[in-house]
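Supplementary Methods, section 5.1.

A reviewer requested that the exact input to the structure prediction be made available. We therefore reproduce it here, unchanged from the version used in the analyses.
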Amino acid sequence: MSFISSSNLHSSYSNMALEGSKVKFGILDCAEIGRKLARAITLAPNSDLCAVASRSVEKAKNYAIKNGFPSTSKVYGSYEQLLDDPDIDVVYVPLPTSLHLEWAVKVAEKKKHLLLEKPVALNVDEFDVIVKACEDNGVQFMDGTMWMHNPRTLKMREFLDDSEKFGELRSVHSIFTFTAEDDFLKNDIRVKPDLDALGALGDVGWYCIRSILWAANYELPKTVTAIRGPIFHDSGVILACGASLQWEDGKVATFQASFLTNLTMDVTALGTKGTLHLHDFVIPFQETSASFTVASKSGFEELVTGWVPVPSEHIVPTDLPQEARMVKEFSSLVTRINESGSKPETKWPIISRKKQLVLDAVKASIDQGFETVDI
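The structure derived from this sequence is encoded token-by-token as follows.
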């Protein structure tokens, strides 16, 4: 298998760029999560996996070979070379969070559309700089929260919006934890304060916050209070934490995020008439379908020996893995911008900013001795 190096890239690729209208992706860095997105880009029908960049050509080449990149893919020995490639439409950035501000802005300034791993930034001030760069350069922004693009998510939304079956949302409870191995706790970037200073809050906590805001139709809470007893790594990075969120109308939510307890991905949303449960909200148990359970107007049998009605399970099939559906949707937005002159879709940065605001408030509450923080 051969790959095109940066020394002969432009002439070798120009002919292929004319063969179709697929959106052309480059991956900035050889991060582990990038392997999943490389596959997703290949599976999506409207995208092409075209390039990867690392700090050395050899590392990029080995990464491409190991992860099944097309033989026509280009490999670069610097990030700047990928950004200078005129054929690349989209840059996926899976760099550590501390590097997002620098490289996300550079991507936007090169007029490349930006698919950025979460958390988007270390704080909302950095977030705003990134999004402003995207707005100023007319490029699409989206963060890499894959479960939002699973068709199950739309079906669950229909239940939550059903006033007869679910009623009004009153509380949400979200958990995302996994037990990190010793090597992770020693060497992973998520325990390095100079790389991913937000630790478990920024990683698994980002998903929990997203699920809560999603259930609340992205209405921001009024206040956030961190739960006492977070666990810190020797480096000072958060390994486990939680928080409670409160809305002015009385809604409440809680989440637990941890690198120290068994793999769990639960969301429960409770309404005045119904309940939604799911146990694999970030990554479904299997790629081809995903399920959720609902109960509506629940009660007991006459002798309190069982439930009436019994909760029902709903299985939603999918034609593509959720990460490939994310790439497909992002590519569709990019195509509309590039070919029809449409403006970038603004809902994605708006949703991401709300998550960042809540994340910042949780961090502030921890830093301030678990005081309640207004948003």
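The CA atoms of residues 222 and 248 lie 6 Å apart. These observations are discussed further in the main text.
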